[in-house]
Amino acid sequence: MNEPLPKKRKLTDLELQWKITQANLKIAEANVKIAEANVKIEQEKTTQTANYIILKEKEIILEEKKAEAKIAEHGSSTSTNISQNGCMASHDDFFHRYVVGNIESFNIYSSLINNIIIDDSVTIDFENHCNHLLPLCTVTEKDVQVTFDVIIRYLLKKYEGSTKLQYLNTSKKDYLKFQDGEKLYRYCPDCTFVYKNININADHGKQCLEDFVVCLGELKAKGKSVVDDQHHIGKLLRYLTILLKIQDRAKIYGFLSNLETITFYYVEKKLDPPYFKYYQSQNLQFYNDLGATKSSSNTARSTDEESKNKHFNKDALNLFAKFLTGDNEFYEFTTFDITADDDLLGNRFHIIKKVGTGLTGRVYLLKENVAKNATNAKTRIMKISKHNLHSRLFMNEIKMINKLKEFDNKEKFNYFFEDIIESSPQGKFLLFKNELQLIKSLTKVQSKQLIDIVEYLYNRRIIHRDLRPDNLMVVTKCSHLKLIDFGFATSFNTNETTKELSIGGTIIFADTKFLKHYLDTYSEFQLKPLVYNYPRTFDLQCALNIIMFMAHSRIKIEMNLIQQLQTKTKAEESLKLWTRIKEVNTNYSELLKSINDKKQTLNFSTIKEEIKKLFLKNIQ
After folding, report:
1. Whose CB has fewer CB within 10 Å in the chain, the N or C terminal residue?
2. Helix, strand and coil in the chain, % to nearest 5
3. 325 and 340 housed in the same domain
């Protein structure tokens, strides 16, 4: 028989309170342990991410080293791209590796169809310049260069109204550069031609001359064959190939001459291997030999007798004159959205150096044309459009800068932005007053300055839309921040809080909402432009991401890797990155919440105080 269970004693109120207190303490202890565990999990996540990035970096370096070793051991095929083309030990190696089996003939006569016809006075002058060299047994490349200089300058002067070119003797100017890994190769093309409206010379403008080359010429010593000289052909074609890569154009012409004959060449960029195709014209003789063909046993004629039997070929000179007077379509100089007829202020300024390259243009430092010993020459900055599609962005930048100047705070405008002091009516170039420097890091003070700039734009109902580190500059003489490049900027009407626009400008520094929309609507076969309802706070969210990028080395490393990816993958990885940061960084997350809270008025003073906290914890 089971014994009855003893009755439980009823707890007093005091005992019950004590039990509850004990239970609450245990719950609190458990919550602390859970919180600590969550912290460790997040730390482990970020550590794993950091290790993953480091591993990926090592993999990339390893793959590069493997590729370099493979090239060194086996050599590369004709499908090798320009980065390997440039590192050949000699011009002969370049010829054998990339030109042999990859060169075709073309008819130069059908390519040059302008109406230039030289008169007898030109042929007489040409013969007078060349005849003193014909009887000589030895004529060096230097002799040929001196004579060719005179001839080219004479022809360009003679046909000044028809030619678009100016000539530079660059035989001793190593302006053509090619970087292969840590090694820098420098080359000195003999004859360089640029558009005559480009005020640049081979001394002061050597640093950026390669950007403006329209076509090239190489010269040889008299008596050396132009047709089968692999060294000189390899040299010319190598120079032209490097220029195609530097200038990002599709086609470029050149010629090879020894004063007796001339052969024309061009290089064309292809989308598929071998990526560059080479073309050679027929060999044209400036002089026809009227004497009998020499056999190996008949070499008694003297050089004087040979020269007497030389007959000038007017057709060859006429063709060379046509080459020097080609039109814009013939030269296909598409590096910039300019022609030889555009006014690039060359009568007032000359180009000294390149200071930057952006999505829509290249930027150059200009110096005022003054007397040689003058010390008060002004400098200016010119941004030249790369393509006619970008002229709309250049014109929009002019419009937005003028709109910003309408407001009554001129001091702040000059503090935050760069004024456009001149521009092309067609939007082909913009001229600025000051040379600026790209930022490499962002201090807390500069971060506040960035928010000040965004606040200034916000109060004037303008968004920049292309906020990214490349568009943040500092004045050379101080460290104050300036925002540049307003090509994608837009303004809001008084009652607008969002504005539907075609997506343009920054993507990877945008907020997660934008990135999700972009990925949801993106298609490689998109027929219509992607659109997005841009909020007035768009720049502010981009600014926070830029501060995080500049303040945390690990984020910077990861973003730099992301920028090398294809468009869609770039957006996908950016979304993952900013989502993860929002989860692990409370300060960043809270700032984003305050920006997106439509119930509260945006308080920029509070935001400027709060961004200090973004620098406190370095994300590992």
Report:
1. N
2. 45, 20, 35
3. no
